[in-house]
Amino acid sequence: MIGQEHIDALTKILGDKGVVTRQEDMQAYEIGARYDQGRAAAVLRPATTAEVSAAIAYCVRNGLAVIPQSGNTGLVSGSTPDGTGSEVVLSLDRLNRQFELDSDNRSVRVDAGFRLSDLNRRLEEYDLFFPIDLGADPRLGGMIATNTGGSRFLKYGDVRHNTLGLKVVLADEDGTVLDLDCDLRKNNTGVDWKQIFVGTSGAFGIVTECVLNLERVPKQTATAFLVPAGGAHVLPLLNAMEERLGAYLSAFEGMSKNAIAAALAHVPSLKNPFQGGNVPDYVILAEISRTWEPREGEQSLDAVLESVLAEIWEMEEAPLADAFVGPPHEIWALRHALSEGVKHLGKLIAFDLSFRRGDIMAFCDHMKAEMPDKFPGVTVCDFGHVGDGGVHFNLVVAKDSPLLTEANLEQRLRDWVFAVAVEQYGGSFSAEHAIGRRNQAYYDFYTPEKLKEMAGGLKALTSPGKLGSVLFG
């Protein structure tokens, strides 16, 4: 709890709508998207950058710890308070007024509290979109703080690649506002300061405004489910498609049999496209796209995709065992249902990992072979962005499993998975979910001391106040 004098002072800064203290009203800000829950001293809801600055300056001067919260869709306990009831949550949910489109520059200047879906809805009439495709619907500030990637990273890159400028409030006694709102794509005039605030979990400052690169909405798409001849054939299949399709290839998503089965069971309206309803061991969702309307005499994308798949089928030691070209909305519906389907199987322990593209299937095969001996009763339900080396390595413990009585089960699983991923395969323990309290110990363990020292120095320089859930340094 914090004193009433602080609540009164913050209410004077933000107004009655800008401060929430009733316990029942704070619950939505205290409970995370998956399994984390804390207790807040208060929730601050500033509506402008100036209000963020004034509130942060007050909190720093009075030693109040602040947890920035964007859409609260994160999965690593980075946006919710701890259990002490002493931390203040600062939400971006009212910071959603500014929207300045520059269609000639293919960019938009927008408040960081916009949800991804709201931004793209506003951009529809201009045939533009912010090209980060996610199953969740986060706010832009959180996407920047965690450097999200998504299903079309292969073609469009991550948030870092698509961020041109930022406005940031630092957690110092003045609530300093850094105006990094550059809308240039080329600007080599010194340190690219905005990058300090991309992917660093909000610990160095609170993003309140951003200038984003936009892309033209595809006017033609074609999709297919591809069944590789085996795990070792996934990378050759990807290479063959990249060689033949180039920039047309916009997604190459891997889905395991267990993950697909969970989605089909959880969402009965989904169409099972596989012969006899038998789900293969591993399936690739491939998408190709073009930004222009079909031209007279031009081969359709469905025909392009079918022709390429036929070529690959005829390769020596063909990496493709089967393929199903189908309507994009049906094919993506299955991919987007995976997370919810897996979550309903039992207790979910989720990992967001990345590897060199050539190692991703070797890692998954290794873990599936070792799991029955290491952790009998744990089911692997992996899926992810194979085209960029990312995998959502989900482990599910059945609701009636005796493993759930083990107090340290999750800790043992995390220690083992991260050790194999990082130490044996040279991977990352966080591909796009950032750090957060859930990954703090692994950041501390795997990050070299000099890098931690440098990160701690940047934290002290930019935001010496108590900001964020991540401890750098």
Quickly describe the structure.
The chain has 473 residues and is an alpha+beta fold.
Overview of the molecule:
With 473 residues, this protein is α+β, with helices and mostly antiparallel strands. 33% of the residues lie in helices and 23% in strands. It has 15 helices and 18 strands. A 7-stranded antiparallel β-sheet has the order 15-12-14-13-17-18-16, with helices on both faces. A 5-stranded antiparallel β-sheet has the order 5-6-10-8-9. A hairpin with a 4-residue loop joins β5 and β6. The protein is globular and about 75 Å long. The two termini are 27 Å apart. The mean pLDDT is 94.
Q: Over the alpha carbons, how many angstroms does the gyration radius reach?
A: 23 Å
Number of H- or I-type helical stretches: 15
Tally of extended strands?
18
How would you characterize the largest beta sheet?
A: 7 strands, antiparallel
Q: Mean pLDDT score, rounded?
A: 94
Sheet-strand content, in percent, reads 15-25%
The span between the termini is 27 Å
Task: Enumerate the spans where pLDDT stays under 50 for 5 or more consecutive residues.
Answer: none
Instruction: Report the helical percentage.
Output: 25-40%
User: What is the 3D shape?
Assistant: globular
Strand order across the largest sheet: 15-12-14-13-17-18-16
> Which structural category do the helix and sheet elements fall into?
alpha+beta
